[in-house]
Structures are given as structure tokens and as C-alpha cells.
Amino acid sequence: MRAVVYHDRERVAIEDVAEPACGQDQVKIAVAHNGICGTDLHEYFAGPIFIPTEPHVLTGQRLPMVLGHEFAGTVTEVGADVRAVAPGDRVAVEPVYRCGSCPPCRSGHYNICQHIGFHGLMAAGGMSEFTVVPEYMVHPLPEGVSLELGALVEPMSVAYHAARLGEVGAGDTAVVFGAGPIGIGTWFALRGLGVADVLVFEPAAERRAALAQLGATVLDPTEVDPGAYVREHTAGRGAHAVYDAAGVRASVESGLDCLAARRNLVAVAIYEQPFEVTLLKLVMNESGVRGSLCYTSDDYRAVLELMARGHYDTSGWVTHIGLDSVVSDGFEALHAGRRMKVLVDP
């Protein structure tokens, strides 16, 4: 079968690889769509970061690696011990490997497992014609939820998990920095949680236009001062939660300026490089910064329920490409800002 194989920084190839066999507790999937994630971009341009150069403790796999952890498809085969799905079922995949025995796993927070692995980063993934995953990773798609939306369940669950960590609800004000896929997903998630007053700051005109078309209030942080704008917008109170989906120093500093007293900035970006932050802002406001890592099955179920109700709209920000153009129309186009969200169709 054909697959996108990662070898090293800026070394990705379309290769013929062996079609995976289905083990007794596994599910084999014909992949319909696989999204290129921001993490994939970091791996391509700055990696290997998460892709192991030595065998991973849970999967035993290392590079070269078939990429792809945001995907949906149709079940073609199941192992003898599988009961949750059957051939012909359409599924999304929650691609987290967890050890089940470390303190976070034992407390129910397997998304921060001390040995965490991801299908498509630490095991051969879904940017291929077929892939196999453990039964616990599959989530059947509700009737009416397309395979395209199914491939977006993973990034939308990243955003939904972060939105919940901000502890906001009806009547609150939330601020999002960055209108890439996770920023867009955070806006959708906050609306799904009942937060009507959401402000998004994004410097790129194309991204602002795409999100505004969906009904969001989007502002250019190079034209308005985010902190001053939010203070005026909230009669001096500030935002009940701020979400950094941009991953740069300017968004974190501006985000801290937007926070109401004793509230949190939720960091839901990948930070390639360390940078300085004015911690005195936290001290003087008794505010905090909280990290957010991936999701749990609860987030997947919540996103799928919202999708079944027609909550998510892909108009204007999702593009489909084939395997052969994954570098030029995928990695490079996304890095250059010419695309917002790319789904690879094997």
C-alpha cells in the first residue's frame, strides 16, 4: 500500500509499504481522510521532536514512521477479540497509546501518561491506505456525521479539552489567540459550551476572513491592542479565560493582558522554542497559565455529539489533497499560510 513516510527533517516520501495485519484486539481501517496537524508541521520543519529515534516504550516503533494521527475511515477487518465495531462501520480514531500504570493513568488522566504515544507519531499512522489500531481507539461515527468531519474529531477534541479547562460558561467572555485549526476548534467548542462572547485575535487576513464567515468576532492584533480592547469590551473586568492557540511570545504576553483577575490562560499550542514571559503579570493579577494536552474519550464523545447536531462547519477552511502532493500542497502550503486545514485523501 502507499503511505507518507517520515525519515527526518524535511525528508518525507510517498512509499510502497507492507499492508498492516490485524491482530486479535485490533481494528483495520481503510483510511478516507487524514488531517495534517500542526505537530506534523513541527516534525517536518524542525523534527524529529516527538517521533522516536529509538523504539518507543509502548509501541516498539521508531523512525522511519508512517505519519498521520487525525483520521477517519471504514472498518475492513476486526480481530477475534473485538466487539465494539464490525467491518463496514465508519469510525474516527482517538490515537493515544497509554501505559495504564503510571500515576496520571491510574488517576484517569491517560492523556498525560508518562509514557504517552500517538498513532502516527510513535506507531505507523493513518496517512496511508490502511492502518490498524487497538479496539479502544475507535469511535463509531453517528449517522449523519461525514467521514470528512470524522477526520476532524481529533483536532476538534484537542480544542474541546482546552475549552473545558478554561472553566467558562454562559455569560462569560473568552479570548482566543490564533485562528488556525485549533483556534477555530476552540471557538466552536466554546460556543458549544454556551459561551456566546468569544473574541478571536489573528494577524493573517485570510484566516480572519474564514473565521468571520463562520460568524466569529475576529480582530487583528496588529491593528488593535488586545488587552486594551478586551478591558473596554468587558467594562474593565477582563476575560474569564484566554486560550493561546498561536504558540508565540506575543500571543502569550497579550493574552495575560486580557485576563480577568484570578483566571487562567490555557496554553494549547506547541512551543518549538522557549521564550521569556512577564511573570509579574501573573503575580499582580493572581492569574495563571494552564497547559492542555490532547483529549480523553469524554472529549471525543462530546465533539461527536456536537457534530451530530450540525454544530461544526468546514466551509472556507478545509482543503483536500492526494498523497502525491502532501509536501507541496500540504506541509509547504500550510507553513507558508496558503492553506488552513489540509486533509490528505489516500
TrEMBL record:
Task: Report the transmembrane regions from the record.
Answer: none
Keywords (alphabetical) are:
Metal-binding, Oxidoreductase, Zinc
* Record-linked Pfam families: ADH_N (PF08240), ADH_zinc_N (PF00107)
Which InterPro entries does the UniProt entry name for this protein? ADH-like_C, ADH-like_N, ADH_Zn_CS, ER, GroES-like_sf, NAD(P)-bd_dom_sf
Q: Specify the Enoyl reductase (ER) domain's residue ranges.
A: 7-344
What Gene Ontology terms for biological process does this UniProt record contain?
Answer: butanediol biosynthetic process
Its recorded name reads (R,R)-butanediol dehydrogenase/meso-butanediol dehydrogenase/diacetyl reductase
Q: Which organism is it from?
A: Tamaricihabitans halophyticus
